[in-house]
Every structure is written in C-alpha cells, then in structure tokens.
User: Fold these one by one.
Assistant:
Number 1:
Amino acid sequence: MKRTEALDMVREAISQVIPDADVAALGPDDAFRDVLEMDSLDFLSFVEVLSERSGVRIEDDDTPRLTTLSDSADFVVAHTQ
Amino acid sequence: MHRETISKDTAPGVTPNLADYDRARAEFTWSQARTALARLPDGGLNIAHEAVDRHAAAGLSDKVALTCVSRGDAVSTVTYGELTRRTARFANLLRSLGVGHGDRVFTLLGRCPELYTAVLGTLKNTSVLCPLFSAFGPDPVEQRLRLGDARVLVTTAALYRRKVADRRASLPGLEHVLIVGPGTEELVGTLSFDGLMSAAPDTFTIPPTSPEDMALLHFTSGTTGAPKGAVHVHEAVVAHYATAASALDLHPEDVYWCTADPGWVTGMSYGIIAPLVHGLTVVVDEGDYDARRWYRILGEQRVSVWYTAPTALRMLMRATPREGPYDLPRSYDLSALRFIASVGEPLNPEAVVWGRDVLGLPVHDNWWQTETGCIMIANFAACEIRPGSMGRPLPGVEATVLKQGEDGRAMVTDGRVTEVDSPDVEGELALRPGWPSMFRGYLHDNERYEASFADGWYLTGDLVRRDADGWYWFVGRADDVIKSAGHLIGPFEVESALMEHAAVAEAGVIGRPDPVAGNIVKAFVSLRPGIEATPDLQRDLLAFARRRLGPAVAPREIAFDQDLPKTRSGKVMRRLLRARELGLPTGDLSTLEGSS
C-alpha cells in the first residue's frame, strides 16, 4: 500500500471512532490519543477498524507503534508489503 | 450454578490480615476500628492528617509515598515528608484566597502529582474536595461545578480551555481557577497554581476537624434527573483504613497500585486515601491503559497489591490470552505481586481464572458503590474464591437481599421490606447503615437521600442473589443506570444532551452488553418531522454528544427509531429498548402507549 493511502486510512479509522475529530488539523507527529482524548475503549475500536480496513492483523503489542498519524501509516505500509 | 471454586490451600508468603472470616466478622466493631487511627492533638479526625502528616511525624518522612510514572514514562517520587510540605503549601494557598472550612474545591486533572497535593491539601484546610474525571465533557463538568457549589477549580490550561472557559460566565460562584503548569498568562480569570504554591509557606496546622465534617463530594448518576452529589465526612477514613486491611490485605511494606482514576470514588478512597493512611508506597500512572505499559509498571515498580477493574482485566486477557503465549507478562518480573483485586462491575469467572493461570494469582472481585464510600462485599485473601461471585460482607457490614416489587426495586409495604431467606433468589441488595464511610446525604437533595432507605436499610439499586453459604452474586441493576467500563452513567444525562440537537425529537439510552466494557452506552433517537435518518446525521449526533459529554459518558452507538416505546405518560421505556436490543421477552406491556 502507498503511504498516502495508508495515511488516509488511518485518518478515516480515527474519524470513524471519534466522529468529531478534526483529523485535518492533526499533525503527522501529534500523539493523537492525547490530542483527541481517546480513552482505552476508543483506542481499541480504532485498532479494530484499522485492522479491518487494512487487512493487517494488529497485536496488542503493536500498539506502541500506533501513536501518531505518521507511525501508524508506516506500520500499515510495512505490513502490507 | 456450579463453578470451579478456587481454594487457598497453599500458605501465602504474607499472613493475611483477615485470616479467619467468621472470627473476624464476630469480633469486629467499628468503635475498635476507630482506635487504629492517630487523631489530631485535640481529638479531631482529619483524613489528611491520617494519610500524610502523622506518618511524616512518626519517622516515615523519607519513605516514598507516591511513585509517579508520567505519560512519557519518566518516574518521579514524592516522600511522605515532601507530601506533608506540599499539602501544607496548598492549604495555605487556599487560606490566602479566603477559602476555608466547608468550601468546595474541585479538581479536573489527570493523574499528575499536583492532583494528590490538591486533594490532601484541601482536606487539610477542612475544605471539601470534589474530584472530576478529566474525560468528562463540558456539560458534565459544568453541571457538577454548579450542583456542587464550586468555589475553586484546580485544572490545567488545556482542560480549562476545552471544558470550562466557555461556561465560566454561567458559574458565578466559581471564584478561583488554579492552572497547573504553564498557560495562566493567556487565560483570563485564572491563577497560577505553581506560582502561588511556591509563595505559600510549607507548614500548616490542621484546624479542628470534627469526624462529621464534610470532606468529600462524589457525584454519581441516577436513573432520572441530575447527577447526585454524595457527601462523605472525615470519619470515612476509619472505613477506608479498616476495609483496605481486610479486603485488599494491605501491609506496611506493600507497593500498591490502584488503576482507577481519582475522578471516581475508587480512585479516591483506594487510590489515594486508604493506601496512604496505611503508610504505603503508591504507584500513580498518568498514562492510559496499554498492555505492555501495565505489565512493565507492575514489574518495574515491584507492585505487590494491585486493585484494578474488569474492563482493564478483559483488555489484558485479549492481549495475553489464557491459552498463551505468555511472552508479554513473562518478559517482566512480576514476582513481587501477591494480591489482585477488582471492582467496578461484576468480574466474569473467566477473568478470575485467567489471573490464576497467566499471572499466577486469581483475581478477587469486590463490590461497593459511591454511596457506601468503602468496600462492602469482597473475596478475601485467606478465603476461597467462587469465580463470578462478589464475595461475602466485610466485618462490620450487614447485608441482605430484599424481595422485589413490581418495579424491580425492593418491595416496600406500609414502610416494611421483606428479607429473602431462601438461597439463590433474586432481590435487591440492601445494607444496614452505620459504617463510618456511609454517605451522609445527597447535596441539596434530601428527598432523593430519604428515598434511598426503607425500613432501616439502605437500598443499593443492585440486584443480587445469595447462595446457601452466604456468597453474593450480582444479577443486574434494578434501575436503568448503566455500568460501562466500571463507571456509572445516568441515561438521563445522555438523553438530555442528545435532545439539545436540533434534529432529535426524543431519545432513549441503554447499556448494550459488550465483551470488554461490560456495557457500552447506546442511544436510540427519534428525529423531528422532515429530518432524514442518514449515516451523516448519525455521525453528527455521535460527535455532538461526545463534544458535550466527553468520552467517559457519550454514547458509542446511536440507532434511529421513530417508534420509541413509551409509557402512557410519554416517558421512553428504556427497559423495553433494552429487552428489544437483547432479544429478550418484553414482559408486561400494559403501561405501554398504544397497548390496550
């Protein structure tokens, strides 16, 4: 998957879980969990949605690599090669 | 119902405080429990004195009281001596603002060291502390500040901007807003916490405090109407101390971690007060749940007693299933851990057994609520565990099961209730008032307070059954209040927020069972005439509710339903919505609108 596609996918997954999230204003390196006040249930949903959309199996232990738009997109790209 | 009982055959490394349940029940008295505390020189009783000052005075000055792990994993410590000085500064700070006895000080903070200073400093000053959960949205925050007569709010610039600034004008009683960290300069009408703290003297003499002086205000949710502010007094500390000894088995050498946020009663009673009164080292994690992070903290901080919640345990079960592999927990040294307890919602039997298999320790479920102020029913360190059961009443606690009436609550006939004597019969859990941390009222709402009692019993609103051996089993709520991720959520508060949306005509909110959170908040809404039910509107409504209510309270699912079931008086029947959602029989519909 191309990185731009992955980035869009991450943004969409966030929007689906946090409908009022201003993802356009989110910087590539912002820790979105904090910025968007995602609680642990939100984050769990985000992981599920992202996994479903990308077809990438995401283990709980992978979650430290899903903290920003940038590292989340990298993660998806790396696992869809 | 037969489930595998977990026995406690092997001798524990630490002798449990409560070694013989029946004997402890027979011998315990609250008057004796009162003697375990130090008291003020004039005989008064102040929570902050018991939790902080007396330890510093008794040679524990250099002992670590708080080990704080920041979001970024930086670890800092606060000794009992330092905590004494910081809380003295905060008490002096309040006094310099003219804030005194009985005045309400609110916190809206994450789990940062300043939160502990503000809580205990407020109690030192004999002001009343009301904690707010930082994941509340502007609506719940404003409502609680107003209902609780907030004079002071301690928060951060980001939280203030997001949740309070717009509403400040409608809160004339809120005189002082103290901002922790930078950002005061840009926020009109705020003061710098850090600046005022450094200017305040670090010694403070606690003024006379009566055991019956109001100390804490905890908001909780009811089925209808506004949230209720449960009032707790300084004497509650007697119960915090005694129950933490019996139900959490706290010993002086323990390192203790309670994962509950102090914005809720568990995080206050057992995250701050009880462990400090026991003179322990308390682990404070500012970060959010993350499986690796939690295992790491348990290991690196050498946590010995861990008090957590079913939702968190179920998340850990997903990360590290019972079937294995156990690589993640095994990559940390969890050998210090000796006792695990859980509260907030019923703990499923699988989670109890998971603890035994994956962590080497079964999880001890217990039960209590905001109003009780302390643990009432528990599985104990020395006793067998019946997985799925909340356990048995603590020493000093008298519980019973009351026969239900038609509305599901305890049946009251001519002022009298009927106790259920037969085992395994469902009824409402009731408690005999008289323990020290029993709430003393709902603030400004004596009517609802009075309605919580019948025939000398406090009615909990929880349905349970008691087995032949006296173990209690949670069945459900007797009312419409939703337990989600360990938090109590009032459907009325959520419905009210949704009805503020221009498209919504009516709303009914229920808890939909969820494998991780226990229940999640689901809303059914009917739309005003001419409004079309579209996915965009659905998103818009979810966003709208979340903006107002915050993630802790907002619905996670919204469904459109133009035919919400209603009573003849026009009230949405949540019970029926729930039955429909679950595919259950809908029962007696005779009061339903349109039925004959």
Note: The first strand of chain B starts at residue 64 and ends at 69.
Number 2:
Amino acid sequence: MSPETPGQARVEMRAIRKVFPGVRALDDVDLRIFPGEVHALLGENGAGKSTLIKILTGALLRDGGEILLDGRPVDVRSTKEAQGLGISTVFQEVNLIPSMSVTQNLTLGKTGGRFGMISWRRARAEAQAKLSRLGVKIDIDQSLGSYSVAMQQLVAIARALDDETRVLVLDEPTASLDADETAALFGIIRDLKAKGIAIVFITHFLDQVYEISDRISVLRNGLLVGTGPTSEISRQQLIAMMLGRELGEVESAYAAHRKTGEGAEVLTARGLGRRRTLKPFDLTLRAGEAVGLAGLLGSGRTEVAKLLFGAIRSDSGVLSLEAGPVRHASPRRSIVAGMAFCPEDRKAEGLIGELSIRENIVMSMQAKGGWLRKIPRADQERIADEMIRALAIATPDAEKPVSQLSGGNQQKVVLARALASRPRIMLLDEPTRGIDVGAHAEIILLIRRLCDQGLALLVASSELDEVVAASDRVAVMRDREMIGEIASGAVTRDNIIRMIAGKDDGRG
Amino acid sequence: MTDVARLPRRRDRVARPGTHRALWPLLALAVILIVDGMISPNFFAIRIVEGRLFGNLIDILYRAVPTALVALGMAVVIGSKGVDLSVGSIIAISGAVIAWRIHAGDPHFVILLLALAASVVCGMWNGLLVAGIGIQPIVATLILMVSGRGVGMLINLLYGGTDPSFESALLQGLSTGHLWLIPTRLILGAVLFVALWLVIRRTALGLFIEAVGGNAAAANLAGVNARLVTFAAYVICGLMAGWAGVILTADTHTSDPVSVALYIELDAILAVVIGGGSLAGGRIYLGMTVIGALVIQALTTSILISGLPPEYNLIIKAVVVLFVLVLQSDNARTRIGQIVSGGRR
C-alpha cells in the first residue's frame, strides 16, 4: 500500500521461534532492520544468531512468528525465494569455487541461456556489471582462487548483490581480513548503505561494531537481550549483555565456599603460547581450586584449554605437571598424566555418536589403560551405570547410541567420560553450552563438588555468571591474549567486564 | 522421556525389538539355498569321498574362505572409515613371494612366514600413506592396487620367472588338504576368524577402531591414538589378505600375479556391506561379514548349478545384492511398507 516512509522497517521479524530437538534455539525474538542502516547482530556461539539469519534467508523454516518485508508479511521458504524477495546473504565460509573463474563464480546457477546453454558473452557482461556495482576492477577470467581472501569475499558480496537487493546479510565478513582489507570492505558497506540497502552485520570484533554499525541487537541463549542505537550502548553494557546470565542462587550458595590458593600446584604454564593462535601466557592450577577463563568469542579461551591439553602444540614456553615438564604434549599423554578435557563442540569433538553411552564413557579410561588390557564388559557396565546415576543422565539404559540423547545429557556423557578416567586436572570448555537451565545448574553444582574433592579445574565459558559461579579465580582473555587474572575474593561480574572492556573504553 | 529427542534417526544401528541386524543377510542366504534345493534335488546331500566331505554346501564354504578372509580384514579397515583396494595386489605379492622362495629352496614353514610378512609390509605401506601422510584411503590404497601386481611379476623375475609353478606339501595341505574329513582351509579360516575376533573384541582395539571411524577428532581428544589405530587396521587387513594369498596360490600351485584374485576387493567390500557394515565407518561386524561372503559365494555356486549360461552370472549377482541391500535399508523398508499397505487400502 504505502511506499517506504521514514520509520518503516525494511525487515521486521516478530516473535520468531525455532526449536531443535532438546534445545530452544530462538524464543520470541523480534528484530527490526531499517533501510540504509548497518545493524550489528551480536552474541556468543549458540546464542541463535545464525539460526535467526537462516530463518530470514530461507535456509531454515521458523516454528513461530512472522516476517514483514517493507510492511508486508512474507513467507520465506527457501534461499531462492529469499533472493527473489531481495534478501541476500554472504556466509562466513565463502561459498564459492576457487578453481573456477571469477565470471563463473559470479554467474553460476544464474545463467539462464537458451536451451540450457550458457552464453559466456552475456555471463561476462553480467559479471563485469556485478563487480562494477562494488567498484571492483579485476580480471574476471582468472580463477577465483588466484585472488586474496579479501577479494574473494568481495566477489561473494558482488554475487549476492543485484539491482533488487533490499537486505544484505554479512555473516562474519571480516573474520579472515586484515586491517586494510577490512577498511576497504567498510568503504563498500558505506556505499551500499547510502543506496538504502539494509545491512545486517554479524561479527565478534567489537571495534568494528562501533566503527560501522548504526544499531545493535544482542542475542543470548535464543533470546533477544537488548537492541538500540550503537551510540547509546557502551562497550561495558554490550559485553554485559553478551555474557550476562542470572544465576544468583547457585552463586550465593557457593560464594561461601571460596578458597584461597592453598592446594598443591598441579599444573603450571610459563610463557606457553603458539604463534598466530595465542600470545604466551602464565597460568597455575591448584588442587581443589577452579580457575575460570573469561573472554569474548574468539578471545582465545578454547585455545588455552587445548594448548594445556596438547590438542594444539605450543611453540613457546613450558608446561609442567606434578611429574615435571611435559615434552611432546598430546591428548593421549595428557590423559595418561591425569588430565581430562571436555571440548566445547560436543558433536564434532566430544562424542562418537554411533557408539553407545557405555562405550563413550569408558573410552578415555580405556585409552589410559592401553588397548591390550580391555576393561571387562561387566566393569564397563558397572562404571557406565554408576556415571548415569551420579550425573543423572536421562536414558533407559547404557546401550543407547549417544547421538540419541538430548544436548544436556550428551554433555553429561562427555563429563562422565572425563571423570571415569579419574583425572586430577579437568579442563572444561563451555561445559553448559546449549543445554537447558535445569541441567545448567546441575553441572555448575557438579563442578563445585569436584573441586571440593580435590580436583584442579579450568572452566572456560562465555557466560559470565557461570564463570563467577563456578570459579575461585578468573583468568581474563582478550584478542588471543591473557590480559590478567582476578584473584579469589574479587571475582565479580563487574570486575570481569571491566577487565575485558579494558582501558580503551571511551564510551559510557 | 521428554528429554530424549524424538526425531527418527536413519543411522540408528540398534536393532528394534523383533529384528536383529543379522536377520536380512541370513534370510537372503536361506532364500538362495532354498531356491537351490528346488532347482537341484540333491543340493543338500553331503557324501564322504576319499576320506573327506563332499557336497554343494561344503563347496560353498570351501570356495568362500579366501573372500571371507579378505572381507574380514576389509571389515576392520571399513570400520576405521577407510577402504583397502589393494587386497588383490597383496594376494599377488604374497603368492609371488611363495614361488620365489620355493625356487630358492627355503624351508616351507619359513616361506609361509615370509609370505605373511610380505603382506604385513604391504599393510604397513597402506597404513603409512593413510595414517602417516594423511592420503585419502581410496587413493592411498589405489597406489598399491595398481602397482602391486607389477611388483609380483618383478618378484617372479628374481628367479628367471620361467616356471612359477611349485609343489609344497605344507602349503597345499593348508589350502586343498583335509583333516578328519574336513577341508583344512575351513579349519584354517575358522582359526583365523577366532584369532581376529579375539584381537578386535577381547582387546580394546576394536573399540578404538570404531571410535576413530565414528569420529576421529573426538577419539583423539578422548586419548585414542587415532593415527596408530588407523595404521593397525591396514596392517590387519594386509595380513588377512596375505592368508588368502597363501590359500589361493597353493590351490593353483603357481604364482600368477596378473590374474589371481582379480576384483576380490569388490567382493570383499560387498561382503562387508551385505553384513551390515557402512562405508561411513564406525562399526565392525566380523560374524556378519562372513555371512556376507557366504551370500556372495552361494549365489555364484547356485548360478553355476542352475545351468544358466555363465553370462548371466554377474547380472543375477548384481540384482540379488541390490535386493539384499534395499531390504537392509530402513528407509527403503519403510517406503515399501507404505506402498504395500497403501495398495491394500
């Protein structure tokens, strides 16, 4: 009816809901994006950013809510329909084919010639036109792979854009770009913005958020926790929104439990690091103490845990356990030495989905004992049943394939596997990722109980309240560097946020 | 159980009540044998001739042994999410080693060990390429598949290569002889099966191989040495192929690297798949693999005794195999069930 009036949102997503088995991925999320604005969409892994974008671009179907495009309800059921409506996406991993020419990449699947034949003359003209829209001049007959990642990123954007584009979604477009390339990309984003295109910009670089975006929306655990103009949200507020979570009861229940560093040192890292991955850091773990590892997405939390475990090789520094310095660290050697690691990504790195709960639980224990001394079946069953009971894993029996469990129960199996190997040091990376609130509190309680039993723990987490609730001390990460440690007694949300935000916080 | 997700899972390997994964392959084997019984009335007769058992059933078992041995090794490699295309070449090489050392006059017991050692070396080579260097299994084993028969011919040239035939009481005894009425190769096959089963199921090696095949990254982080375990799988496969090489070479009294056990890798993969193994890795079914090998051999034998022209052999084999695999697929069974019940309505 009405043409675009100022104040009319280009895209309005209302009360969007999406449920995956065992997880509520999005719960009543509203998002409004206006023409000519750059809208930063922020949140940690698993917050629901990509689910929301996939629903907007037709890659996933929503379970509830509605989408309005220029005020009209639309039903986006496939990426092709989204394209037809003028909604284009550039995903983080460049979805192009390096071995093909720039022309082919720009026109693949879009060259509707006569009798299904491709008119290369027309394709080249079209490719030229697409690139000139971004002001990019390159040889379109070269293979795409011969250009830099930044240029490939621009080609991907050029492919996504056409004259009808009204909404452009950029998912982590700067993840693999250096400063100059990022600046060039931002120039192009500003041009597109001037043309009235609504741009959704997903990133985890806060500097870039403040440099390019007009408004910010933050998701956490499938909920929209805040939205507003970039100029009105301070860096501290933003970090608090991304990491916050009210877990008051658990926290207060264990606040009294705080201990000072009196246990024996069981792990010390001195100048441990790896080029391009993690700047050298010092860290000490003591028996009976939980050390939290806080920081934003991409700050190097996971890398610290993997480096200590030997899943990533260090190229500087020394790691010492009780027995002495560790040489040639590997996951197997670490486990034999009494360490255990629960990875963040359960599906990819944690569980062997086809194997049963029992087989998954005894895996590390068996690896520790060596392949020749197989744990007798009866013992395996006893251990598995004990763990299922101790951790309250919801399953009819231990022989169920682990892939059939819900997220929270899968996480408990990962913990059970680590515990069954009787470790003295446990490294937990996002122990409560993607699990519901009930299991969340249970796992925090479990962490505290393990500590009381004399285990040394490292808990890396994107949820600030979880870090506060679970740890005695907190090491804080920023930009792949351990920037400091918050001593026992001073562990509060505010202290952590202040340290992450750092001195360069000009706002708020 | 609201906690347990309810989506249907295609990769569900757990047998539902009433069906065991062994059901479909065993049913296929039974159907083939019953059809044989109808075609030829004396099919199931077993006689004793010259102090050993004779009959079609014995013949099927007898001929299935080499394929079954190769398939057992293949099942282990496939469980690690790999494949070994070079088993035919390994058979050729172990055969050539036998002929060569017999011409050199070595004791025959030593020759047996040398032939098996050669097959272990071949397995180590494959393991090195896959686990050490990280080449994709199909490509890595293609290298030995292509070159192995040439290596066999070169070994034959070591003694002139004019007459690769030989006589050996020990080796032929293992292959074509008999012990208390029973063909020795059946006993040998059974012993090797039990030995492999003990290694896979009575040590943790089987669990580790399945873990690596199911999710190598996760297995590694859980403390399993994924590379070493993968390497071991290829060595086991090489050794099993080596035993098949001993039996096949002694059977023909000659080393024929060009044509011995041609396409046996395909029959072996097929046997594993009929036995319920998935090329996606993650599970090893040793007993079922033997059933798979028997299905293939029973089919070949029945086509021969049915009097059909041999040209039909491969086509009928393909049709039956397709049928068995479709029956095994949960998806296809559901679909067929829907069509059938829809037709009744």
Note: Residues 53-329 of chain B form a domain with the ABC transporter involved in vitamin B12 uptake, BtuC fold (CATH 1.10.3470).
Number 3:
Amino acid sequence: MKKLLSPLYLLLMITPILFLNGCIKDTCRQSRSYTMYVPVYKTNEEVRLNIKSNPAKEMERPGKLFIKGHYIFLNEIDKGIHVIDNSNPASPRNVSFIDIPGNVDLAVKGSILYADMYTDMVAMDISDPENVSLKKVVEGVFPFRYYDSGFMMDSSKVIVDWVTRDTTITEDCDNNFGIWGNRDMMLFSNSGSSESFGTKATSPFGMGGSMARFSVVQDRLYTVSDQDLTVFNIQNAIDPLYASKVNVGWSIETIYPFRNNLFIGSSSGMFIYNISNADQPKLTGKFGHVASCDPVIADDQYAYVTLRSGTECQGFTNQLEVLKLNGITDPALVKIYTLTNPHGLSKDGDLLFICDGSDGLKVFNAATPSNIYLIKHLTGLTTYDVIAWNQKAIVSASDGLYQFDYSNSNDIRLLSKISYKN
Amino acid sequence: MGLYLFVSFPLFIGAQEKEEKSKPGVYSIISAGYLFGESDISPGFNVITGIDLQKIKLGIGGGYDGYRFNSFPVFADIRRDFGERKKFFGFINGGYHIPKGEETFDSRSYPSTEKWQGGLYADAGLGFRFKLGKKNNLLFSSSYNFKKVRHIKTYVYPCLVPPCPGDVFKYEYGLNYISTRLSWEFKY
C-alpha cells in the first residue's frame, strides 16, 4: 500500500482529473410553458347575422369607450361592444352586447355607431341602444391588420374566438429550434390558408400592424391607422363612403378633434391637421418629442400630451407636456410635468384628469397651464382611460369601469364600479 | 457524478495507511483557483473551517463558484490526510449552492426577467501539501465538481391592456467541471 501512495501514484491520479476536462460534459434540459391558441371560425354570414343586441356579457378585456346620451358603449377588445345603461350613474346596468369580432374602436354620429371589424367597417343603428341592428359593412378599409408569429389563417372565414390551452414541452437544450420550429403549427393547428396577412383576425399575441382610431367631425369619420389618416364621408350616416387617405407618418396612435383641427398623436410627436377642407386634411403644425406613447387632447389655446414608456411604447419618458397652440401652426412647449405612467386624459373646464397607470387617477387644477397642480389623487386602481363629462368621470381601469362625481372638486367621490371578470 | 466517487476513492483507502499522528485541533483553509469545463473557464474560491479529529477532518465551508452561472456554495467538508508525513490528502464536499437572484431586462420590445435557482453542489479531489511551518501549509489540489442550476427566463409580449401574455423558459443544468486550486491551510 505504501507503494500505492507514492507521489508518483498521486501524480498519476491527479493528472487524469485535469485531462478529464475534455471528457466531461454539461447537461441541459429545457422546458417551455406556453399557451396554445386555436382559432374558432365562423362564416361571414354567421358573423353579420350576429351583429345585433345580444344578451349582456361579463367584461373581460375592455378597450375604448364612447358615451352617447345616458348609454356607455364599451369595447371588449376583439369581441364587440358592451352597451351599458348609465341613466343612474350610481347603479349602471350592463344591458346588452354587440358581437363584432376584431373590434377595437368605435365612434358615433347621431344614431349610427361605426366600428371596425378586423379589416372591415360596420355601421349600426343605435337609435334604440338596447336593440341595435347592422346597417352596412364597408369591406377591406383597414388593410393593415395582420398576424405576427407566422400564423396562417383561413381567410374565407372570420375568427370569432380563440380556444387556449396551457402546454409545456421539455427537451434537450440543443433542440431549441425544435420548439420554435413547431411553435406556430402548435399554436395554430387549425390553419388552413397560405395567406399570412389575415384579413379578418388578430393574433392573441398583439398585432403586427395598425389599430384604427375613430373620430367623427360633422359629416366625416376620420380614422387613423399606423401610418394613414383615412376620411369617410358620412353625410348619409347610414351609408359611409370612403373619401380619401393621407399619409401622416408612422406609429400613429391617437386622434383628437377640436374645432377645425385634428390632433394626431404618434410615438414620435404630435401632428395638427386642418380639416377646413373636410376631405383633404392638411398638415399645419407639429411638435416632436422622444419616442413614447402619447395620447393628446386640446382646447382653444393649449394641447395636453401625455408621454409614457412601457411594453408597446418604447421610450423611457413619463410626463405631461403642455403646449401652447400659437395659431395652431407652431405649437410651443409651455411646461413639462413628471408623472408615473400616464395613459388617457380628459379635461373639463379647469379640471384635468390623467390616468397614471398603476399610480391611479390624478385630478389637476389646470386653470393656469404653466402652473398645473394636483388636487386629488385616487390610488388603488390601475387606470387606462377617462372621459370627464357632465360632472362625471368615467374611468376604465384594469379591474373595472369606475364612475366618479366631481361636481364638487374638493370632494371627488366614487359613484359606482362595474367589475371586470378576472 | 461517477467521477465524484472515483476521485474520492483515496479518501477511503487512505484510512488503511500508517499515518503521522497529529494533535486534534481546528483547521482553516482558504482556496482560490480556476474552474474549467465544457462551456466555461471561471475563477472560484472558498473558505473552509473545521476540526481535525486526527483520522479525519470535518468542516464546513462556503465560497464563490463562477462556473457558467455565478453562485455561492455552502457545503460540508470531509477530508483525510495520508501518505508519508501527511503530504497528500483527499476530500469530498457536498452541499447546496445559492445562485445570484434575479435580473430584469427592460428591453424596448420584450421585457424579460431571468431568475436562477440553486441545487446540489459537490466537489471531490486530491491534493499535495507543502509544509510552510508547524501550523501553516500550502496546498495544491485538483478536483471534480458538480452543480445543478435552474435558470428561468420570462418574456412578456406587447399588448394593449395588461396583463400581457408571456413565455416562460426553464433550463435545468447539470454542470460537470474540473477545478485546480491553490490553498493556504493553517491550524489553531
């Protein structure tokens, strides 16, 4: 044994350990959890027949809202529109649901509601909001909605829903391509067409193209896509006619009308288009800013622009910019106010309401634009959009639709809340 | 792991050798060296302290292990000296390694979070001892190491209204690598 433990022996034992480096390998197993989405199709005829007042549904993923009389029309993203009877703001009633697959935006003129349905636009009669009927479909006017993720859909039908299933795959890390290579097929196993630019549907992962934003000014409906401002003649409200299209840049996000102007927010700045000639909007002013999402509103003299960072917005700026509209053509920065993650905003008189994301709803006194100050901060809710009108602020938040009474600005109080389905 | 048993073999056969007697006491070892394997070469260091029971040394240790993923092993140390004038030693360490916690990458397009979870840590090897005095020794050792790491990546996709959909990737690593260390051993 002594011989066994000689230095030579130990050297012989240690040296192989060093050279074993070439022999030993790391091992790696990877597992990926994801949600498989399978589209549910309906024919065009089935979909159009169902664009009417159907029984009310729970709100799950609400988007934009529109107030008409004592009714609130609240978009359910990609599903349709909730109709809410708000004649008693302390106790609003969810009365019906209009099924419009692919719907994200809406606008109203008189008793006609305009809404997008993927690439099409639909016009509905809402003279009786609890008995809505389809009047017209204008096909293919929003061509920029397509899928990312390489999904191929059946373009002869309409996707009305997605069935989801959680799935986990475990395999060797070297087979990374295998997971990604199978992803689209597994996610969308019911694909039936070779057309990758879907005409009627949107991906559950978010869209690769634009989202229309609607605004009615007198006899025209203006919509913005990612790059274009499109004008529809709605002189005959029931029969919207395509009038013209103007390229307005890129990453267009919002449209806000005031007097004879359209304030268009993009991720790179705010554009002002004069619509004295209703069918030919003309660029009259612009104000650039850092890349960010920027809802905008305006009054006679000032524009209020909120910039925010975040997932889809790029940028790292979260603030309110107040711009003086010097004859519209040359907006100038008045002051910047720091915020947390501002989304929608609304102004009624001297009160400025700002949805500050997870920091709740902030109400400012904006009597002097260069000296705006906070008068009420409502916390505990994640807010996205607000409409302040007639002493009531309707706020779309992550967990519900809130209504606040601000008739006494020193005592803003909650009137009601419709909770969303978890 | 088979290599782990192979290199710890002398620890057990050494027990049969005639050894130089020493007094029971407390020992400490401070080590630094390199860790190298299939996918990385990184530094590593550790500190061990324990009691010398003459026939065997029992201790606890902790340190830094930079192989592939930064982590901080905490382990039990068993070692045995053998050979003429205790010039040689074998050791086995076993325990848990604590990885660095969590990192968030606020990418413009796909914000992601990466998280690491620790697991089994093992180290077994052989070494030489050069006496520097009555209570101080310089050690050179080579060993086989193993650690398990779980790496979790979470991506969030852009969407209009949060919560946005995301993907979760989980990687289970079994990392096998060799270490060479230079150490200072001292006794109290």
Note: The interface with chain B takes residues 1-2, 4-5, 7, 10, 13-14, 17-18, 20-21, 24-35, 61-63, 77, 104, 173, 204-206, 211, 311-312, 314, 382, 384, 398 of chain A (CB under 8 Å).
